[in-house]
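> forwarded from #structure-qc
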């Protein structure tokens, strides 16, 4: 019995700003948003009151790597679940390649690094065509390790991940994650760092109360600015979803990437809104937000999550690759190869301008009394996505139930 591990550590550091691009004819269109939303709904169902962060695009890329080595039901389940079944067989690899390439434009104002690597067991022979295609489509490095030396392998993989994620993801794996039956590990890391097009001024950041959905309050650092963003108010017409909610799209510098924040009304728990989130709705939001001046209150936040993709993907119909019946014969002639482990780790930090943005302790008074523009006050849980505005690719999706909590002893408390 052989085990194939798929690891998708993801890393994201962000600074924010808005930008616009229009889709040119040669720009690929991501077709995986349905899959992304289904993944989110599974995580939401399992997530209680926790923050959520994952990278749909990175999961799609990791699965693309597996699919490259798969045949039969193993291959078909992936195509179906991820949203490629309308494409001619094999076209999805070129699509994934183009979608990742679209993020790596030389003139981009942000940093995105996709780091894909395949760690092979010494002595196991992989199909040369498979290795060739891995390089071609996924720029995957291939390294040989001896999985029986589990501590050494864990260290090697962790170093690699660390190196490709600006040290934001450390100690992803431990020796326990490998055994003498492990033969292949796929590591997939994404690192993103962008600057907001309109940065928040650190001196406008102050302590603020954030109301969690369980009714408790925490003190957080709330950033503030008045600026031109993309904004809209939406309603699905049902009271269950809490009536009208706000969508704010804040581009990053260069305007190719943006963060979209979806905020229910103050008294409406995010859990009321989450069930209505569907792929077509993401599109509707993107198409209907309008450029205008908005007053934005957004907490600094840091979200991090390690996801067991094996459980989650099985719930979405990708089962075969995790069983003895897996057909990974395009990868190697070795029999009984299946995926024993699939993990993704994602990390996102949002600050005034970037991860290291300093926070001034001096506060300006924030006032709710005079509202000239629509006001987005994210002082309660919200949903977010970070997407490529040209291709629709969703780099990150998640929610903030609890932002970065500050120690009350460290800061001034100017209450509203
Ligand atoms: C990917 O880009 C190449 C080069 O522009 C193009 O030939 C190919 O058709 C694209 N593939 C897909 C699936 O869009
Ligand atoms: C880290 O990455 C750089 C460039 O990406 C590379 O030159 C270097 O060898 C890497 N170090 C390790 C330990 O992998």
């Amino acid at each position: 019995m052989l085990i194939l591990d798929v690891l998708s550590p993801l890393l994201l550091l962000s600074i924010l700003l808005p930008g616009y691009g229009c889709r040119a004819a040669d720009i690929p269109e991501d077709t995986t948003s349905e899959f992304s939303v289904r993944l989110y709904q599974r995580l939401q169902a399992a997530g209680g009151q926790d923050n959520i962060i994952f990278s749909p695009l990175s999961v799609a890329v990791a699965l693309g790597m597996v699919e490259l080595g798969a045949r039969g039901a193993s291959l078909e389940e992936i195509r179906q679940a991820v949203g490629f079944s309308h494409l001619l067989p094999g076209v999805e690899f070129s699509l994934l390649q183009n979608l990742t390439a679209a993020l790596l434009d030389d003139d981009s104002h942000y940093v995105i690094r996709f780091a894909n690597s395949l760690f092979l067991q010494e002595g196991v022979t992989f199909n040369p065509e498979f290795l060739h295609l891995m390089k071609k489509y996924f720029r995957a490095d291939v390294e040989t390790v001896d999985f029986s030396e589990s501590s050494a392998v864990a260290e090697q993989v962790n170093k690699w991940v660390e190196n490709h994620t600006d040290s934001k993801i450390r100690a992803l794996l431990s020796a326990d994650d490998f055994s003498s039956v492990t033969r292949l590990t796929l590591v997939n890391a994404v690192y993103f760092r962008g600057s907001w097009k309109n940065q928040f001024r650190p001196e406008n950041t102050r302590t603020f109360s954030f109301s969690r959905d369980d009714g408790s309050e925490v003190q957080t650092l709330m950033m503030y600015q008045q600026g031109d963003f993309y904004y809209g108010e939406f309603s699905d017409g049902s009271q269950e979803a809490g009536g009208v909610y706000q969508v704010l799209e804040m581009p990053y510098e260069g305007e190719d990437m943006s963060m979209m924040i979806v905020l229910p009304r103050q008294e409406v728990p995010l859990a009321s809104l989450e069930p209505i989130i569907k792929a077509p709705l993401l599109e509707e939001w993107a198409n209907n937000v309008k450029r205008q001046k908005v007053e934005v209150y957004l907490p600094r936040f840091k979200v991090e999550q390690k996801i067991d993709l094996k459980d989650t993907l099985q719930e979405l119909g990708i089962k075969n690759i995790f069983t003895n019946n897996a057909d990974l014969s395009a990868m190697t002639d070795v029999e009984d190869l299946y995926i024993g482990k699939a993990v993704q780790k994602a990390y996102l930090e949002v600050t005034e301008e970037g991860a290291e943005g300093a926070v001034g302790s001096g506060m300006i008074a924030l006032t709710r009394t005079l509202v000239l523009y629509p006001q987005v006050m994210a002082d309660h849980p919200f949903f977010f996505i970070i997407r490529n505005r040209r291709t629709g690719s969703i780099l990150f999706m998640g929610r903030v139930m609890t932002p970065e909590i500050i120690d009350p002893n460290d800061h001034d408390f100017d209450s509203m």
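QC bot note: Residues 1-25, 354-369, 411-416 have pLDDT under 50 and may be disordered. The pocket of 2-acetamido-2-deoxy-beta-D-glucopyranose (ligand 1) is lined by residues 26, 28, 91, 94-95, 98 (CB under 6 Å).
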